[in-house]
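During the second half of the funding period, the structural biology subgroup turned its attention to how the target accommodates small molecules. The most pressing case was S-adenosylmethionine, which had performed well in the primary screen but for which no bound structure existed. We therefore specified the complex as follows and requested a full 3D prediction, including the ligand pose.
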Amino acid sequence: MSDFLSDADFELYRKLVYDASGIHFSATNRSILESRLKERLREKKIESLAAYYKLLLSDKEELKTLLDSVTTNLTRFFRNQPHFDALEHYVLPELIKLKGSSGERKIRIWSAGCSTGEEPYTIAMLLKDCLPAPWSFEVVASDISLKSLMVAKEGFYPDARMQGVPEAFLAKYFDKKAGGYQIKDEIKKFVRFDYHNLKNDSGLRDLDVVFCRNVLIYFDEAAQKATIERFWDAMASKSFLFIGHSESLFGMNTKFEFVKTDWACFYRKFI
Ligand SMILES: C[S@@+](CC[C@H](N)C(=O)[O-])C[C@H]1O[C@@H](n2cnc3c(N)ncnc32)[C@H](O)[C@@H]1O
């Protein structure tokens, strides 16, 4: 047990973080919560965990900062390529067939838990490249981490973070700058970044595709199920849901159906 974070404080703080975000701290990742709390106390020049807790109850902005600090924002362009192959070769042709017959020519995608933007920009580059005219699309991208959203909106990525981006996309959709690459406005304009906590209803409706990859792993089962149910409400009939390849809805008793294709597995709302 640590001198800084007693068992009682750990319980108090992990409940606060969980209730506010769904992010679940177990005994094994307790040290992460502890180090983030230490940082916040140092930064705010606050002496005790009790005083900081009191502050959190009245200061919504500080609660947002704490939540931001406990998130894991690891991501990369074209992460889990088979998902993007499935998007290109299965999902888009299906949507074109389905929506085309109703006369609609727009595809709406949500990247939920988009971190620093690599996922929504990957989606936007892909759709820009392979959606035939006169089809258009929009990508809504949201996260609880304001720091990550700032990077995402800026759209500048250091050289080291560009692995996985095909040469042709690098040349077409980025400008080379000192130390990295700047995503071009012609891609940026398709992506709308928003602060959104998956604990709450997004208000989004009629989405054709939802990507929520490598986010649910930080939630416990109850928060995962509640989030998945909110996705259901936000999605159109016959739409598609991609979750991380180490995540699963197995045993969750949801209405989504598991779909296995030549490229990747995902879930579908058939109704
Ligand atoms: C590991 S990143 C995944 C990024 C991207 N989806 C990918 O697969 O590469 C997880 C992201 O989920 C976000 N996140 C965690 N809890 C959240 C919540 N309650 N609401 C919205 N975003 C959340 C974190 O801030 C983080 O940026």
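Two results from this model are relevant to the next phase. The pocket of S-adenosylmethionine is lined by residues 21-23, 71-75, 79, 113-115, 119, 143-145, 148, 197-199, 213-215, 218, 244 (CB under 6 Å). The radius of gyration is 20 Å.
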